[in-house]
Amino acid sequence: MSIIIRNAEPKDINSLTELMHEYIVGFYRKPWPLAEKVHQLIQTLLEKQWGIQFVAEQDHKLVGFATLYFTFSTMKSEKITVMNDLFLIEKFRDSEVESQLFLKCQNYTKEHGYAHMTWVTGSDNKRAQRFFENMGASSIDWVNYSIT
């Protein structure tokens, strides 16, 4: 099983859209935004100004992706990354592929001078929480809110 972890490229838009659909609708059970909006987001990330996407590829088929957004931390007064997404098709969860994709994000953060990488996961996603703890992460004492 040869896996490649790499930056997303324009040729990945359709496959990445399918993966994002599985992530949003299949995994999180959220409504699907219009495909045009998803394509716009992917295109924005391909420009690497506001963030970046990485993909995991096996035999020319995408099996996972991760998204980093670039922002700042007032408390650190430095730039940081937010790992907004880390998703693999079920077969590759809890595998070396997941670790490689996570490490790609972590290494990008370090290599590009960001103070740290942060992220959130669902309180009921115990599998992901175990994975992150095994990767050396620790939870922090913040409560997340959202408003529309």
UniProtKB/TrEMBL annotation:
Keywords, comma-separated and alphabetical: Acyltransferase, Transferase
Pfam families noted in UniProt: Acetyltransf_1
Keyword Acyltransferase recorded: yes
Record protein name field: GCN5 family acetyltransferase
Domain N-acetyltransferase: 3-148
Family matches, as Gene3D superfamilies: 3.40.630.30
Keyword Lipid metabolism set for record: no
InterPro entries: Acyl_CoA_acyltransferase, Diverse_Substrate_AcTransf, GNAT_dom
